[in-house]
Write a structure and sequence with these properties.
This protein has 32 helices and 25 strands. The protein is of the alpha/beta class and 883 residues long. Among the domains are: 8-92 and 291-348, Alpha-Beta Barrel (TIM Barrel); 101-285, 2-Layer Sandwich (Maltooligosyl trehalose synthase, domain 2); 401-523, no CATH class. The chain is globular, with a radius of gyration of 30 Å. The strands form six sheets. An eight-stranded parallel sheet has the order 16-15-14-5-2-1-18-17. Strands 19, 20, 21, 22, 23, 24 and 25 form a seven-stranded antiparallel sheet that branches. Strands 6-13-12 form a three-stranded antiparallel sheet, with no helix packed on it. The longest helix is centred in the C-terminal third of the chain and has 31 residues, at 690-720. It comes from Acidobacterium capsulatum. Pfam families: Alpha-amylase (PF00128). One of its GO terms (biological process) is alpha-glucan catabolic process.
Length: 883
């Protein structure tokens, strides 16, 4: 039987918040009404990991969190309290750290490694120097300079041989040791050592797919190394001779260069990753290598522990990280479902505004970004948003065509960050064209340009065409055809037939082994293009109303009508009633309460415009030359308004990250110290100005209450809409955090316990509202709604009903309302700054007695004035009384 949560609470586990800490807050979460703790990844990650997504060993529990013993105590505590658990899992990639024994083995043995088939590595790069080698872009300068400065050394101890650069270590290929060990054998006059050197030189070099030979080689290598270890332990003279040979090797740059060339990796200047990397990464992160989880043996090995926990009931479900990076997401979901038929599964699939989750995927839904953006757009006032966009254009002189900006930024990241991926795709497509006389004259440069253009023209993260099927799904065909059409329009200088052929390959109309390989790799590529080009660049450049700039958002889509909102929720209830609904995650650009406050700006565009001009004039003396630029200044003011109160340290750290992501004045790859120093100085000065502080506090005081009402409104929607509501850690009170790492700090659970105790002891709505600043109304709303879901899960489940309610009267557009199963009515206002009172606006409720769970008041069904329903609390959660 499927174990579906009725609510989740996300916890970020790391060395400063371990299994022990999580167990300690579990009773509070149970009292709050949570059904499942939703844990960040906790398989063994790289040392010091603050998020867990850089896994180094999927077969062990993270020792920094408490290891297996700590995990067991944590799970036992959850079980004692009747709480379930959801785990975030990472099937797409692993970290390339030396603690990753699988990766270490690949670096040591190359294509002959037992784990060479685990990773998405291209061993056949066209450059001879990279054939059967993995580029490791870690050097701080050109390889030759680093080598001659003696920064790369070969080291030896009783355990192993390794290459060292700074604090980084890399294994040594066994066959390459033959030369230094032969020399050492001569120094020691030792026949056994000479035999060992000869044996290493004779190790076979099988292909990764020759499993029997790979295992035979591994056994032989292990025996030889054991013999070497024993010899060194018993005969110190042998160790001394080896040390002498290694010292001579390190002293001879030519010899060391030749020795390093024998390795299955190539240490290189860090900038080479842009163009020469030979493996698939997570986005542009060189230290996260893609896994070939579509291969059954890789799936089994990397999922064994998680599947064991699911089978034992330790876990009730999983959150699947970055499924769009996988070669075939549907195949992965099906394999996972086959192995865990009763698990609740949601995937971090980022949907476009009009995109639907594929109905044939055997998962419950998404991780909730689609719901988040739905609420975002619902709270925005369309006319005011238009005015604000015009004000932004006038103030910054920046373009305001979002699609054009997004296309430009995608093209940029393809060139600057993802060039290696483009090159590998181009190599494949060149091979395809070479086999066809009508296409073999397309140059590599033309193919690269066409590839980049087509990828940049996709409006969604990726398509899901499967080679071997009869044809692509209609949805995929339409997306591909549109991208090809747009690419041809954008690049009239390229042969249209090249684009058409590329479209045929992507839609599986042109078929073959190489075509299928290209198609699958291309689909994996468009997701990083969208993520880095839009999510991590455009959304920091296009700033009219930054509250709309979220993961999966399309700010150009504008405000959302009530009809569209209800239609979307009705479809969710029909297709994915157990999807996850969230308003904040560890990855959101801003917390839910920051966005809720910023949405109020669209209700007061004139106030924003006049304040913007006033602040800019007053703060002009604090600029350093032209810095910060107008776009950054505009972005900063909205950030201050949304997150106020905020310290100089927090806003400075955030703005440094935001401007580097924007890649306009500075970037991670090319930091502009002059700009960054000027920006930091500007922030320090304006936040030291009493006049400006008074202005900011005055402005925030005018929009703070409408922003809080927005927060309560969207929280009520999350708690009652079709789907499973999730609360991000600490978000049960007002949360004014920004993007990570700002949103991953410590949470004060002692304060939350105390406030919850006060609510449990009994407080009137008026007493709760007197504690508005502390966030008590939000906590109260979450507490009451979660307990309602606990008591009556059937009212919100797969068989529940969703019925829109519409207001009647002059303020009807300000009401968001619906029924769940005829038993619960949720009513929330929007645009409260413009509301000015409900006047004669009413809503029609089904007959019978309705009790407000938030106030205790009761009303009879029929036409009810909203001023009656919302008089004592900003939102209403009504329960149909059957007695």
């Amino acid at each position: 039987m499927r174990r579906v949560p009725y609510s989740t609470y996300r916890l970020q586990l790391h060395k400063d918040f371990t299994f022990e800490n999580a167990a300690a807050v579990a009773d509070y979460l149970q009292r709050l009404g949570v059904s499942h703790v939703y844990s960040s990844p906790y398989l063994q990650a790289a040392p010091g990991s603050m998020h867990g997504y850089n896994v180094v060993d999927p077969e062990r529990v993270n020792e920094e969190l408490g290891g297996e013993a700590g995990h067991q105590r944590f799970c036992e505590r959850l079980s004692e309290l009747g709480l379930g658990q959801i785990l975030d899992i990472v099937p797409n990639h692993m970290a390339t750290r030396r603690q990753n024994r699988y990766w270490w083995d690949v670096l040591e043995n190359g294509p002959s490694s037992r784990y060479a088939t685990w990773f998405d590595i291209d061993w056949n790069m066209p450059e001879v120097r990279l054939h059967n080698k993995i580029l490791i872009p870690v050097l701080g300068d050109q390889y030759g300079r680093v080598l001659t400065q003696n920064q790369i050394r070969i080291e030896h101890d009783t355990e192993c041989f390794r290459a060292r650069y700074m604090e980084n270590y890399y294994p040594i290929a066994p066959r390459s040791l033959a030369l230094p060990l032969t020399k050492a054998a001569q120094y020691a006059d030792n026949a056994t050592l000479n035999f060992i050197a000869d044996s290493l030189s004779r190790l076979p070099v099988p292909d990764a797919y020759d499993a029997e030979m790979v295992l035979s080689r591994h056994r032989d290598k292990t025996v030889i190394y054991e013999l070497l270890h024993q010899l060194c332990s018993e005969q110190p003279a042998v160790t001394a001779a080896i040390d002498r040979a290694i010292a001579e090797l390190n002293a001879d740059h030519d010899a060391l260069d030749a020795f390093l060339d024998l390795q299955y990796y190539r240490l290189a200047y860090w900038r080479t990753a842009d163009q020469d990397l030979g493996y698939r990464r997570f986005f542009d992160v060189n230290t996260l290598i893609g896994l070939r989880v579509e291969r059954a043996h890789v799936f089994r090995a990397t999922h064994e522990l998680v599947l064991q926990w699911l089978d034992q009931g330790v876990l009730d479900g999983v959150r699947i990280d970055h499924p769009d990076g996988l070669r075939d997401p549907k195949q992965y979901f099906e394999r996972l479902r086959e192995n865990a038929p009763d698990a609740w599964m949601v995937a971090e699939k980022i949907l476009g505004p009009e995109e639907e989750l594929r109905k044939d995927w055997p998962i419950e839904g998404t991780t909730g970004y689609d719901f988040l953006n739905l609420c975002n757009r619902l709270l925005v006032y369309e006319e005011g948003l238009s005015d604000i966009t015009n004000a932004y254009a006038a103030f910054t002189h920046e373009p305001v065509d979002f699609d054009d900006i997004a296309h430009e930024k995608k093209m940029n990241v393809e060139h600057e960050l993802l060039g290696s991926d483009v090159n590998r795709l181009a190599n494949l497509f060149v091979g395809i064209c070479e086999g066809n006389r009508d296409r073999r004259d397309y140059t590599r440069a033309e193919i690269r340009r066409a590839l980049r253009e087509v990828a940049a023209c996709f409006s969604v993260y990726r398509t899901y065409v499967v080679p071997g099927k009869d044809e692509a799904e209609r949805e995929d065909q339409n997306l591909i055809d549109q991208a090809i059409h747009d690419a041809k329009d954008n690049r009239p200088d390229l042969d249209p037939a090249l684009f058409d052929f590329m479209g045929d390959v992507l839609a599986w109309r042109a078929r073959g082994e190489m075509e299928g390989e290209f198609l699958q790799r291309f689909q994996q590529f468009t997701s990083p293009v969208m993520a880095k080009g839009v999510e991590d660049t455009t959304l920091y450049c296009f700033n009219p109303m930054i509250g709309l700039n979220e993961v999966g958002s399309s700010p150009e889509a504008g405000a959302l009508s009530l009809e569209a909102f209800h239609d979307r929720l009705a479809r969710v209830q029909s297709s994915h009633p157990h999807t996850l609904n969230t308003l904040a995650t560890h990855d959101t650009k801003r917390s839910d309460d920051v966005r809720a406050r910023l949405a109020v700006l669209t209700e007061a565009p004139a106030l924003w415009k006049s304040s913007l001009r006033k602040w800019s004039r007053a703060n002009a003396p604090f600029k350093t030359g032209i810095y910060p630029d107008r776009n950054t200044e505009y972005f900063l003011y909205q950030t201050l308004i949304g997150a106020w109160p905020i310290s100089v340290e927090r806003v400075s750290a955030y703005m440094e990250k935001a401007t580097r992501e924007a890649k306009q004045q500075t970037s991670w790859m090319a930091q502009n110290k002059e700009f960054e120093d000027a920006l930091r100085h500007f922030i320090e000065q304006i936040l030291s100005s009493q006049e400006f502080l008074a202005e900011i506090e005055g402005f925030v005081s005018r929009i703070q209450m409408p922003g809080r009402i927005n927060s309560l409104a969207q929280t009520l929607l999350k708690l009652t809409a079709p789907g499973v509501p999730d609360t991000y850690q600490g978000g049960e009170l007002w949360d004014l955090h920004l993007v990570d790492p700002d949103n991953r700090g410590a949470v004060d659970y002692d304060a939350r316990r105390s406030m919850l105790s006060s609510l449990e002891q009994g407080m009137s709505p008026e007493e709760i509202l007197q504690n508005f600043d502390a966030g008590l109304p939000k906590l109260w709303l979450i507490y009451k709604a979660l307990h309602l879901r606990r008591e009556h899960p059937e009212w919100f489940g797969a068989n529940a009903d969703y019925t829109p309610l519409y207001g009647r009267g002059p303020r009807k557009d300000h009401l968001i309302a619906y029924l769940r199963s005829g038993k619960v009515a949720a009513l929330a206002p929007r645009w409260s700054l413009r509301l000015g009172g409900w006047s004669a606006t009413s809503v029609e409720l089904p007959k019978g007695r309705w009790r407000n769970a938030l106030t205790g008041d009761s009303v009879q069904g029929g036409s009810i004035r909203l001023e009656t329903l919302l008089e004592r609390f900003p939102v209403a959660l009504l329960i149909h009384d059957t007695e």
